[in-house]
## 1
Amino acid sequence: MIKKIDIQSDEFQTQLELTKQFTDKVCEEHGFFYNPEEDVNESIQLGLTRNKMIYGQRFCPCFMVVGETPSQREKEDNRLCPCTPALTKEIPEKGHCHCGIFCTKEHVDSLIQKDEVEQEVEHSQGLSKEDCENLLKKEQVSAAEVEALLEARELKLVNFLLVDTREWMEWVGARIKGTDFLVPTTSFYQALEQVEGKKDTPIVVYCHSGSRSAYCQKIMLDMGFKSVANLDYGIVTFRGELLSGE
């Protein structure tokens, strides 16, 4: 059963405002700065709010939450924002947390100077059927490669399934055009029944930043899916066409 949360509801909007106050406080207490790309901050705040409503805690939205009950989740190594890896390793060493919302001033300045992240531009033109098949055998594929594969699929050079492992509210907000199935991590095994009979078809999975989908990728391979590639760094790096709405 896919959990559908109405982000326009009064309850969600109230929780979202509390989440924004929470992330403001994290920045203030630790001397962090928000990512200059506002879309990144908004997406993470929405995800933190979603997890607060589902689990009662602001688990990191870029990772799959493990555990069916509060006691089970407490025993697992779930990331609770602001998470220990971000505070002790990611931000000190890389200048930003895994999700990208909390940054050092130096990292923010570097992003602004580079006019955001440089994007690789590739197209399916010139790719052979063999090229496409080899891409689908990779463990990780880039956003440009996914865009090329989607174009190649339109030309009937290759067949594969594109699966979104984010939540329904993220799917409604924006998803990659050509996505075939939504398999949210909060109802993963039930939703996965949609593709249970397609284990021999190559699959590409994606999420916001590549972490949740990587977790799902491992599970699917363990379950006997023949070929599952992960969109490294997630939908935030995708520069192709997006769709919104149900």
Note: The chain has two domains: 10-113, 129-243.
## 2
Amino acid sequence: MIIKVLGPGCPSCVALERVTRDAVDTLSLDATVEKIEDYPTILGYGVMSTPALVVDDRVLFSGRVPRSAQVRAILAELAS
């Protein structure tokens, strides 16, 4: 599983990366978490509002930081 956190480094982007990494660790997922700060790459996903969470090239969240439980639930479902 390849997980990408899209955002320029704002506090919300940092929070989403933290929540995502915590979820990956808690679930013991075999996943790679990447932080993408490059605007052309972010726009390539069709994201107009950051932060955004992309899993295996599918945008799951954009423009908000979901709660930890939401991220864990989504990642657990995708991993099964």
Note: The first helix runs from residue 11 to 27.
## 3
Amino acid sequence: MSKDRTILVTGSTDGVGRRVVEKLAAPGVHLLVHGRDTARGKAVVSSIERAGGSATFFEADFDSLADVRRLAQAVQAEHTQLDALVNNAGISKPSGPRRESADGFERHFAINYLAHFLLTRLLRPNLGAQAPSRVVNVVSAAQNPIDFDNLMLEYGYGGYRAYGQSKLAQVMLTFDLAEEYAGADITANCLHPGTHLDTTMVREAGISPANSADAGADAILSLIAPNDTTERYFDGKWETRAHRQAYDRETRRRLKVISRRLTELDL
């Protein structure tokens, strides 16, 4: 069994996620790189190895919950301990029509939120198993309240609304995880890594980047570092307040019940 610190970063073949794993590359750190493109994944692994670190690439498309399950199984087949899980993968499609995931869910909600909801809970046995662990959810300052009567935005759809709702759901997941894992040597925090970072997702949305991907990566790294901070939301490296709905326990309970049903967790 490896004594390396093992860190999984979803969506780490491009953008902020890639910069996170490249900055972490060093002897004694084994990085689990995730993405949809094998060629890009191998390129990131090579970059990490050239920097003196070690890495493994895992291919999975978060458009499919079956792929999320396969990813969790593949990680658990090779590792018993995860020292950090960075839930970073995501999409932002501000324009265009409403689209559904392979499982029939609105795609922002499915990829940004449900996939990470399922993955984190499936990997729970690996978190804090042999050493303290950190869960970091990469969210956004763009947070729209959740409408449980129109959760999948089948009417009144807008890309910005869908994205903001999925990101607020991630904040709620963070706060739930922090409470559930209290006393288990596991912390859970979330952050808005920065506005309009220089990433493919931002450029494809037709937005001119205003900040570097490195700035967002550095903010994420600050939460991966050993610390006791938990159940917090940050804007970059500054602690602040998320949308007020995230602090409503009944709203979070309702979302969790629905999420367990949609992901068929424990069924």
Note: The chain has one domain: 5-262.
